[in-house]
From TrEMBL, chains A, B:
Glycosyl hydrolase 94 catalytic domain span: 354-714
Record key words, sorted: Glycosyltransferase, Hydrolase, Transferase
GO molecular function, one term: hydrolase activity
Record-annotated Glycosyl hydrolase 94 supersandwich domain positions: 79-293
Official protein name in the record: GH36-type glycosyl hydrolase domain-containing protein
Amino acid sequence: MSAAPCRFEADGQRVVLDSPTAMPQASTFLWNRRMLLQLNCRGYATAQFMQPEPAKYAHAPTLEARTFMQPEQPYYAHHPGRFCYVKDEDGPLLFSAPHAPVNRAPDSFAFSVGTGDVAWTVACDGIEVELAVLLAADDVAELWTLRVRNRSRRTRRLSLYPYFPVGYMSWMNQSGAWRADLGAIVCQSVTPYQKVADYFRQRDFLDRTVLVAERMPDAWEANQAAFEGEGGLHAPDAITGQERLSCGDALYETPVAALQYRVALEPGEEQEYRFVFAPARDDAQVAALRARHLSARDFAEAAAATASYLDEGRGCLRIRTPDPWFDGFANHWLPRQVYYHGDSNRLTTDPQTRNYLQDHMGMAYLRPATARAAILHALSQQEASGAMPDGILLVEGAELKYINQVPHTDHCVWLPVCLQAYLDETGDDALLDEPVVDRDGRGASVAERIDQAMQWLLRQRDERGLSFIAQGDWCDPMNMVGWQGRGVSGWLSLASAHALGLWADICARRGRAAEAAEFRQGAQAFNDAMNAHLWDGDWYGRGITDDGVAFGVAADAEGRIYLNPQSWAMLSGAADPQRRGRLLAAVDAQLVSPHGVAMLDPPYTGMRDDVGRLTQKFPGSAENGAVYNHAAAFYLHSLYHVGEADRAWQVLRAMLTWPDAAECVQRGQLPVFVPNYYRGAWRLHPRTAGRSSQLFNTGTAAWLYRCLVERLFGLRGDGAGLRIEPQLPSHWTRASAWRRFRGAEFEVEIERVADATEARVWVGGALLAGGRLPSVEAGRRYRVRVELPA
Amino acid sequence: MSAAPCRFEADGQRVVLDSPTAMPQASTFLWNRRMLLQLNCRGYATAQFMQPEPAKYAHAPTLEARTFMQPEQPYYAHHPGRFCYVKDEDGPLLFSAPHAPVNRAPDSFAFSVGTGDVAWTVACDGIEVELAVLLAADDVAELWTLRVRNRSRRTRRLSLYPYFPVGYMSWMNQSGAWRADLGAIVCQSVTPYQKVADYFRQRDFLDRTVLVAERMPDAWEANQAAFEGEGGLHAPDAITGQERLSCGDALYETPVAALQYRVALEPGEEQEYRFVFAPARDDAQVAALRARHLSARDFAEAAAATASYLDEGRGCLRIRTPDPWFDGFANHWLPRQVYYHGDSNRLTTDPQTRNYLQDHMGMAYLRPATARAAILHALSQQEASGAMPDGILLVEGAELKYINQVPHTDHCVWLPVCLQAYLDETGDDALLDEPVVDRDGRGASVAERIDQAMQWLLRQRDERGLSFIAQGDWCDPMNMVGWQGRGVSGWLSLASAHALGLWADICARRGRAAEAAEFRQGAQAFNDAMNAHLWDGDWYGRGITDDGVAFGVAADAEGRIYLNPQSWAMLSGAADPQRRGRLLAAVDAQLVSPHGVAMLDPPYTGMRDDVGRLTQKFPGSAENGAVYNHAAAFYLHSLYHVGEADRAWQVLRAMLTWPDAAECVQRGQLPVFVPNYYRGAWRLHPRTAGRSSQLFNTGTAAWLYRCLVERLFGLRGDGAGLRIEPQLPSHWTRASAWRRFRGAEFEVEIERVADATEARVWVGGALLAGGRLPSVEAGRRYRVRVELPA
């Protein structure tokens, strides 16, 4: 096995990749409350901002479809990106930083990913270029620093060409030019529209894209075609064929923001340039970008503001384990990803209801007030029937788009599932009595609304007692199982049982015995129906189609076993110990793959008219046979739930990208986020199996964080207290954690000791009965020692 | 002035461009009834086919928006195209034919455009490559021939790599692989969908893209990224870095169809390869493509069938003038473009009503039965109010899209305007009595329906007697003049007057005196209203906004004068001779530009809230200040109408691309079609002024053809007879024409003679009174001599 292609630095707060070719898809992302910037190690980039729907200011070279965020974004020479060409005026040297478009093999390379910034350092023939970016704290603006250093022993005369492609903006009013008065290349356009109403909706759009330069360039080019000429992007005519850029404009032509700085550097000398790349509305906004963001002090303030912003989402857990990689990821990157979801709502105005609730389940551990507001906001959109809508509208004028226009039946399930986490973390039972007024003006308390949601789940059952699936449940593309109104979902039936059970417990705790009994009985009925109709002998089936065909069962050649029903049967209690043993064995034998636990197996290779879009997703992508981390996280949660700590650790480990060189490279994934999937179909397509989607939008993050806090380190709220019940993998002899909980801090040492036969917990030196601290005092610092059997 | 960059060959039936860089945007197109292939001289291509909406089988490298056909399509390295790399196995030579992506300067180059085929011949260092394509006659399939010749004096060992990028097909089931059993690279996908209903609509789509090879290649590559590697498209790793392509596949990756043939050629030796590039549904269709299209005989039959198909649209006129360039264009390319419009309906399922009617006005001269059917079909969609819809639906399930969802008020105008041409050409007055049943089941004759349409126009007037414009008239983007329901269109008022006048004439001829009087009175009322409210002193204004502001008037700094009102004031008779003199002078002074007659001047440089989208189109593009050829053609028609033959010739000449080197290169336009616009704003933006849109969808073609037939050569049907009234430019001393007319043929010689004081027409040696042949005998061949004053 070769050396790891990437490494942690700064106590895990930076990840550094040393090659532009080892993992050419490797990416990270920066965000603030208004924008998102995904950066690829080679310099390609995708930026979005909200106005109020997601919009772009750097485009593909063709008119792009508006779509949801796609996994495995393909890159190509003219893909949007941020680059700097470097030409040696006294020799043949030409390269581009970070790597594309010239793709010259560098003498050294580092893609250094921080939590709030990204920097590249690229050296070719004695010239070192550093490109670094961070985002303005509360503005839509990329703040770029370019540094060039002469690492050779002679004076070097260079031309530097920051090259920020802008792409095909619009078929209306597209142009680009240098504006000396603004010190910027200003590319203009008008977002296309045909209906008059759209004009009023769009007229305040930030339809300009600008590159504002702190230093006056020696020359510039605003015309993409003129920049390239016959040479193409790898050797643009404007660079190789002429001394100076032509200072040309783009007039209804594809614009570009390219500058030229001519510089002579003595040995060891360094020069620094700063730029702001951003959308803008008009001249005044361009001037404001310059005034607000372009000085060295502005950059430093933005860095500090970013750090402060990220600090708000630093999470409630710091750990130290035998695996420093795991520590770095868990302490910095995982809470960061949870925070991104919860604070940005994935840069959408209509998050899927299940995503919105789960994302804010994660926020319960970071910033509980945000989670609380989200639960109330979601419930304010509950329908009169008790059903939850397919998406939660976040801004005035937003509408349900894409998949949210397709009816799914699982949204109610997530209310108690996510609420439980929030209540455990905060003890804020008062939330249950909060009144929530819906769009029809009907008022009801949170508890009453959840009652109604549970009753809706109970009503949406067929004569067997299983949940109708309509055009899908959590698995979006399973859109033809029940579109005719008869098909049912095994997973959803189990998830309903679990949700009902959780809610029954909360009702019982709150003294609502009748409701508790009703919901507990409902949960039991779901479990019984599953055991009667979808226990397939060694595992639970996935569902039954409109035509009465059970699927996800042993008789199927493809899609024979699905992971989700097994996980949730353990959570809901449908699986007794004997069934649990069988289904775990089936998962081990059929779903555990070299790249993680697959969501189903074998992957579909062709269309099954009664399953739907799922079967048309390529084997190995997304839901079809992939290691779909969200499902793997449910499985993880369920394994901890039944005390399978070692199995859980294996699943957890496989979900994360370790610096194991082979798997890391195969995945092409830096350990800076957990992606929504790794490709599956490992028997069918070993070449691509394991590859990361590079898509960081996923409910996985929140569940992983929950599992780490509540299960692996076992520091879970419980009524007024804290349950202390770590489930370390057996090969860990010790670990420690800092936990913030309801205003208190816990310093936890966990150790395996030879003489322990069961877990023993001391708090402040006193042995704790049942591992449960009955109450927690805010502001206090607790010292906890846990001894586990060896 | 340098030499012309392109030339006619084969009596004008081919146009040859000798450089890949002189006019890098130059393009042509091939089509059959099911598909369209636009080809750029450098090898870039855009193909569309109907299923039933326009679809693609070679894509951009990113998810593209579905849109109407865009002008000035920007090209970039990964744009779809058809290429062949050539590598010398014994030396450093690497080039690609036609030119991209390597862009090596060739030793010789020819882009040879035929009416039914396109061929490139490219030579580098003694290796000559010929690439040629034609379309299957009645199938969606490109038939490609690759020939390579050794023009050097030594044996050459080469690898040839046909490279057909397929691009980003879909986020569902995208893949590509060589299929030995089919002898093809087969790229698969599923057109994305989320709503169940779309599945049923799309499941028979041709979702594969295949490159079927007649000869077994030595190696292949189906993976775009693997093909390129670090080298990029100009020097792909798969070609420069290895002896053989890797025979790899694409699995949810961007696919490509690349083959490798290794060949040793003796001096003078030639090898030929044939390919079919096409979409397909399944294996059987791929096998059928091979079986039906791949042999040399199949190619020859396709060429013959294409020639036969094109012959159906050869038109009714052959001319010989002092200008052979003009002859070539008028005899072959112009009728071809008219035929394309009328036979393909622009590859749309909902053509704009005005386009549909005007395209079929052109068909009246080519294949009148098609024009007749189109008029009846359009009228079958007339609304109960008499209004015509914004688009005509051509297939079951089609719906109004894009601009056709925006209410425009001019559609009724085109009924008499186009009908007149049809009736003049065919004498088929029986059409007027044809019953037409509309969607509500109401039956009415054609004449009654046109009465209703005219009455609708008369109703849609404001208190001044001017036509409401709603969200636009012929000028689509003038969408805010009257969106509040009050604004009026000067042009539309004049067009209504003209339409009413034409229809009144037809009514009078048919003995419907009352209707004739009603409509003539209506026409007069429109003309009077225009003269009262929108005669601005030297020209007619364009309209009056919702807020009562006249625009297109001398008081305006931008958009001061519009061409259309002037043209139609001459047609409608609103302009008396004095006004006509003034408006012609105004057009000469303000709208005549070095690149043709602009549609308005000065171009708008900023938004005018009361005009609309027009002002947001970049100055020089499309309607905003461009030489918009459709408007120029109206002007041409109106000039002939008032006997301004020399002015007309200047306008006509400027609309076509002559082999004048400077202007031809500035336009970047081959004389194989007339584009919808040349850019304007010549004072503001001289660099780009004149540039062609490269968009061949335009009503210009039909109007130009009509002007050539009926006016320049003056061979216009008139009741039962033929009016012979040429309007040659004064510098032509002679010209001749062959004219097919109602089954007869006319051989016409026109000559200027010194002693003539007025035109004299002889038919069969007999002098014709008034230049009108009272009746025409089908099957007969007439010899016509016209003497014009010198």
